[in-house]
Design a protein that fits this description.
heterodimer; A: 459 residues; 8-stranded mixed beta sheet; 35% helix; B: 8 strands; UbiG_MeTrfase (chain B); mitochondrion (chain B)
């Protein structure tokens, strides 16, 4: 039996400097590093910086491009449809007030219809009394978050700083090492990847990444629309080549998001403004893709359902079928970005977590992309705070695993639905067109189901 | 051999016949796990996930009874200003979590191997407010005049010989009005089924032989010991383990495991 020495004391009286494996000095160690400064990266930095339990943590955000100056002379092409959950997040971060003072579009109604049959679904109240989404330029969201981040002392932002390498720890006692382009090395207890769909951190994690190239591009532009009622409706028409959407910016302008195959997209990009405007109007109005048989059946069912819907309690917006506005002209030039589906099987690794497009990438047809990212921000912040409140290491895999399961449970059904819709509406095969048209008409009449779906898409 | 010696040597304390709380084979069992303590997904993963439940319980309990001596203890360090003793700290899993919350923690454990692992780990993560000592509570209490705001014996009392002496010495280390926290298993049919059979033999989530059901202490026995030491029971809760999710939950029943918070009467 081994005797124990009664007076052996192992006392820890370590003073100010940190011991870590890279023997880097204190100034190069951060408690949390966020890689990537888009809307989601900045929101993450703000949210962590504002959490009371993290008041003593040093947080760093690394962004590879220069600090952007917000240009407001014309509308920026890249916009996002923010759901109520995202708006609440931005309000809680103090960023929404900047957006409100500047500009945004309100969506009080959404009409989605099928070019092959005119079957349609509408969301929103008939009296247009409630906002269901907000259309905000991405640059404005980012700028608003940056303004708030400037006020948070313990969060540092380094622009024009590119990460060339991540080294994740092999065991829980080691730190993450981040190497920058200039050769310097930073260490951290938790690295958060908000670096987009080509995420370098995700590649380091070596997770299985399920990706699918839609072979489509989304053509975006700012359009002046015909005068009419208040522009508070979001329109989306599913063409066989992809959906075309008009998102309201204000009474005069709407933002175009036209997802189509790469060849068509590239030809659209080359068109002069007046021809481009004509093509948009054709896409919204013409009936070339209409399948007469399906149209016939679908119309009858629509009438039948209208009769059955006599007792609907709330003024259902679908009782009134509106026609979309026509486009008068384009303001500025059109642009395009590629579309794809992406899903990281692991959102996390040792002391590492992915958020936003780094973890998941979706088709813009349901306007969910950045909303999923903001949801990740809330969930990861909650996870980190829970770890800290329990006295745990905030990079602990015990907690990061929770973040992963929570978010995947939420994100995967949304991604599957969006992908499913893309597949369903990408065909002109009559049986499927028939099925989806009848289905859409029926779905449109079930207000409780619609409310459920709307509510699920709101967080 | 040590056990024989202690039965021969006359005791000095009140009602107990043994001078030591240390069970040598128990200490050896835990010393043997030295390299596995800090593997969050290893054989001791249940102890790591237990922190999610017990650390907030201890933290809230300590703050409910006493105000911190540190003015405006920030939310980031809710236990700043409190002196806490973690008895049977093992490799410091609980000790570190309390240290991170700002408490000045001393962790003691009879196993030198475990104390060494604890010390090295705390040094690696630069936790400056924890101190470790390879010692038993009875010797520590005799040699130390420091009194603590809180003494915690979590998942320990079921491994000691002479729990009455153990708890007595724990309470003697407390400041008047200080908090004593004990988390342990109840000696019931339910705990035999779940903690021994279920956890150790069927699910293999706890290494076999970790617990000896005969050493579990019933609630009645525990309350009687607390009474003898002038400790008033403040809070009592039951908890249980979900092996599928590696998750602990508070439950109403104290038949399996129970966590208590008692305070030393002034």
């Amino acid at each position: 039996m081994k005797g124990f020495s009664l007076l052996s004391k192992y006392s820890n009286t370590i003073h100010n400097w940190r011991l870590n494996y890279s023997t880097a000095s204190r100034s190069s160690h951060y408690d949390i590093i966020i890689s990537g400064g888009g809307m989601v990266g900045f929101a993450m930095a703000c949210r962590l910086g504002r959490s009371d339990c993290l008041a003593n943590k040093r947080i760093l955000l690394l962004e590879s491009s220069n600090k952007k100056q917000l240009k407001l002379d014309s509308y920026n092409h890249r916009v996002s449809a923010l759901n109520p959950g995202s708006k609440s997040l931005l309000e809680s971060l103090g960023a929404w007030q900047h957006i409100e003072k500047t500009r945004f579009g309100s969506v009080k109604k959404m009409q989605v219809w099928d070019a092959c049959s005119d079957a349609a679904v509408t969301f929103g109240k008939a009296d247009l009394s409630e906002d269901i989404a907000w259309i905000v330029e991405n640059d404005l969201v980012q700028d608003s978050l940056m303004k708030e981040l400037d006020k948070i002392e313990q969060v540092e932002v380094q622009y024009k700083t590119k990460v060339t390498n991540y080294r994740l720890p092999q065991n829980a006692d080691e730190l993450v090492q981040v190497t920058l382009e200039d050769g310097s090395c930073l260490t951290t207890d938790l690295i958060i990847g908000a670096d987009g769909f080509n995420s370098g951190l995700r590649q380091t994690i070596k997770t299985q990444y399920i990706s699918y190239d839609y072979n489509q591009m989304a053509v975006v532009a700012t359009l002046r629309i015909s005068e009419g009622d208040e522009n508070v409706t979001a329109w989306q028409r599913f063409l066989p080549t992809g959906p075309i959407a008009l998102l309201p910016l204000n009474n005069e302008f709407s933002s175009l998001v036209w997802s189509t195959d790469k060849i068509t997209a590239k030809s659209l990009l080359d068109l002069p403004p007046d021809v481009f405007t004509d093509r948009i109007n054709q896409a919204l109005w013409n009936n070339d893709d209409r399948n007469p048989m399906v149209q016939n059946v679908s119309e009858r069912i629509f009438q039948m359902l209208k009769v059955c819907r006599v007792n609907s309690l709330e003024g259902n917006a679908s009782d009134i079928r509106q026609l979309p506005p026509s486009v008068v002209e384009i303001k500025g030039r059109q642009a395009a970005f590629p579309l794809g589906l992406g899903h990281a099987v692991d959102y996390i690794s040792n002391k590492a977590a992915l958020i936003g497009d780094a973890a998941h990438r979706v088709h813009p047809l349901a306007g969910q992309g950045v909303n999923l990212g903001f949801g990740d921000v809330i969930a990861l912040n909650d996870t980190v705070c829970e770890a800290v409140n329990n006295g745990a290491d905030h990079g602990s895999s015990l907690y990061l695993k929770q973040y992963q399961s929570n978010r995947q449970l939420h994100n995967l059904p949304v991604m599957a639905s969006v992908h499913g819709l893309h597949l369903l509406y990408g065909t002109t095969w009559t049986p499927l067109v028939m099925l989806r048209s009848i289905g859409l008409n029926v779905f449109d009449s079930l207000s409780s189901v619609k409310s459920f779906i709307t509510q699920r898409a709101s967080v | 051999m040590l056990e024989r010696l202690t039965t021969i040597v006359p005791h000095l304390s009140r009602n107990v016949s043994l001078k030591s709380t240390v069970n040598v084979s128990e200490v050896q069992k835990f010393s043997g796990m030295a390299s596995e303590w800090w593997d969050v997904n290893g054989p001791l993963k249940a102890i790591h996930s237990l922190n999610k439940l017990r650390t907030p319980f201890f933290e809230q309990g300590i703050r409910s009874r006493q105000k911190s001596t540190v003015a405006n203890a920030r939310q980031a360090f809710p236990l700043a200003g409190f002196k806490v003793l973690d008895v049977g700290c093992g490799a410091g899993i609980l000790t570190e979590s309390l240290g991170r919350l700002g408490a000045e923690v001393t962790g003691i454990d009879p196993s030198e191997e475990n104390i060494e692992v604890a010390y090295r780990h705390a040094k690696r993560i630069n936790l400056r407010n924890v101190a470790y000592e390879a010692n038993t509570i009875e010797h520590f209490q005799t040699c130390n005049s420091t009194l603590f705001d809180a003494v915690i014996a979590s998942e320990v009392v079921e491994h000691v010989d002479n729990p009455e002496l153990f708890i007595e010495k724990c309470s003697e280390s407390l400041k008047p009005g200080g908090s004593l926290f004990i988390t342990t298993q109840n000696r019931t049919a339910a705990s035999w089924a779940l903690v021994i059979c279920g956890a150790e033999y069927i699910m293999n989530v706890v290494p076999r032989g970790t617990h000896d059901w005969n050493k579990f202490i019933t609630l009645d026995e525990m309350t009687s010991i607390l009474d003898k030491n002038n400790c008033q029971l403040r809070q009592l809760r039951g908890y249980t383990y979900n092996p599928f999710l590696n998750h602990w939950d508070w439950i109403k029943s104290t038949d399996i495991n129970y966590a208590l918070h008692a305070t030393k009467t002034v």
